[in-house]
Amino acid sequence: MSKSTKIIRLLYKDLHRSGAKWVKLHERASSGTKEAPSLLQDLLFRSVKANATQWTESLKSGIIRELHRADKYLSYECKVQGQTGSAQYFGTAGLRQEFKRATDTEGGETLDDRLDAGFTLMRWLNTGNKHAEKILGNLEPRTKPPELTFSVGDIVCHKEYKWRGVVFGWGETATEASPNWREHEPGANFYYLICNDGKLRYADQASYEKVEGPISFTPAPDDAKDANTGQEHLDLFFHDFSNAEDAYIPNAHLARRFPEERWLAYHAETSVANQERAVKDDPRSMRGAFGEAITSALDRMDSPRGGPFK
After folding, report:
1. Residue 2 · residue 108 · CB < 8 Å
2. Contacting residues for 35 by C-beta, under 8 A, at least 6 apart
């Protein structure tokens, strides 16, 4: 066996392992078909809807471009045995056949061509696997600290300053909060709040009390830039207000990430109705600076129409 042939086979053995991991991540996420094979776009959408704050912040960073390029290549531009398509669709069997293929090829393909294609695929598989695994980890259901008694969707009021807010998650440790919070509340667990003055805040248990809802957003004149932010986030994370529960109904992604028995039961019973809310659930429906950032990022992640499987 020539040295070149050994290089090819070693490369494609690595591709086989990385490709197997990519396929398993699709299975774990229950995402990706022959017609719509994008995984990273789907996971980014879920992370925005589920208040996975680490990834929401990344919308403003350069990482979104890397996610887009990896998703585009692995979904539509992967090359195996001369065919172009989805790495997830080709799967481990396709990669295995590829690295077993003889180096003497037809159609003018050279050894350098095969090596270039193999290393390109390896690069994007490694990128896709790394980010998909991290995002999936950030979407896992969280354990609620026992000292936090308010639920996602509850309306609470600050005992001193009297602003009201809707709970849209909790932090298990204060290290997830801002530096100012960590300085003033070291080691304290906290809630995420959408407040009626249009601001997002961290909230500790002792400073708030549960009140009746719903809430209306009335920003002060000097906070005019936040006038729509509260309603935008409310529309992003919640469906309607439930009079029976006296709370806002979280979307299915938020309900899974911050599990409460009543909301998990609600979504189990209304899965069809939830599917009909797709337009409202789309983060692109948000307005303002935050909505524009999400829209821009997700539009860049959109798969091209007329792809190889259309």
Report:
1. no
2. 309, 310
For residue 233, which of 181, 142, 168 has the smallest C-alpha distance?
168
- Alpha helices for the chain (secondary structure H): 3-29, 40-49, 53-58, 63-72, 87-100, 111-138, 179-184, 229-237, 252-257, 261-269, 271-275, 278-281, 288-301
∠ Cα 263 51 69 (to 5°)? 130
Cα 167 from chain centre: 20
The answer to whether the CB of 124 falls within 8 A of the CB of 39 is: no
At 80, the pLDDT band (50, 70, 90 cuts) reads: confident
d(CA 111, CA 23): 27
Q: What does the alpha-carbon distance between residue 175 and residue 62 come to, in Å, rounded to a whole number? A: 24
Q: Are strands 155-158 and 78-80 parallel, antiparallel or unpaired?
A: unpaired
Apex 18 CA angle, 16 and 19, nearest 5: 60
Band of the pLDDT at 239, cuts 50, 70, 90?
confident
- pLDDT by residue (tens digit) across 260-297? 888 887 887 665 444 444 434 454 444 444 455 555 55
Radius of gyration of the chain (CA): 23
Residue 209: CB atoms within 10 Å: 11
Chain-centroid distance of CA 168 in Å reads 16
Q: Give residue 16's pLDDT.
A: 85
